[in-house]
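Reviewers of the previous submission asked for a worked example of the structure-prediction workflow described in the proposal, so we include one complete record here. The input consisted solely of the amino acid sequence. No template or homolog information was supplied to the procedure at any stage.
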Amino acid sequence: MTDRIAVLGAGQMGNGIAHVFAQAGYPVAMIDVSKAALAKGRDTIAKNLDRQIKKGALQPADREAILGRIGEHDTLDAVAGAALVIEAVTENRELKAKIFAELDAKADAGAILATNTSSISITEIAGRTKRPDAVIGMHFMNPVPVMQLVEIIRGLATSDATTAKVLAWSKAVGKTPVEASDYPGFASNRILCPMLNEAIYALFEGVGTVESIDTVMKLGMNHPMGPLELADFIGLDTLASILDVLRDGLGDPKYRACPLLREYVAAGWLGRKSGLGFYDWRSGKREPRADLGPGGVPAFSV
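From that input alone, the workflow returned the following structure tokens.
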């Protein structure tokens, strides 16, 4: 019998995780308190499947079977019967702690509880449960259906058996799992987020424009996406939260978020998901922001 998987959160990470498990043949419960988010999540999965079909990576006949394996639920009661529960909600320490305490009470006794956190301590999250040996970090990369890596992070009490099962599940959905230690930001964001923040500082200080900074990194460093575009793709609020975790957890001011990043988040310019960030995404594709002047500030306020 195929293991049942529960994914908490229907946003860009949650629906992507649900997608890859369903495509690999697992029945999936996609859970979100918002029915609108669930509908949007399913629509995103359907569009991504269509994209795979267009590229020849998926047979058209498999589309409906994959969608049919994904159930939509708006309460945590749907975690019952799942062998693996993956939390993929907003990168907020207090919210995740609350959710894991609730998951611990509702999930089956033998279930593994994984978090897709990109920076928060697995040991701290596990401490909110009565099963710290069965709590682990399972950090997927965005966009989940495309990116190969899954960063696996053991907490202080995570068991060998839990780790072995999660490594096996990761491989079963076609990913390459890599283990990282439970330090703030793990390996991926410990390296990536300071680079993105430095690119924002370069814009803020007038070193270059949005387009010139991104072009330098794409053509000069062979990055497939410029750092400011990538920041928009991740979400500027998420980036700021990760930088806060790095600063507080490592005690080094070099991780402090650029003031311009703080201003964008305060303005609700969160990147691709909100329509505006360092680029204009409101048309559904990346376009330059004509209103930005020197330092990444709108020209009318300079």
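The chain has a mean pLDDT of 96. We consider this example representative of the routine output the project will generate in years two and three.
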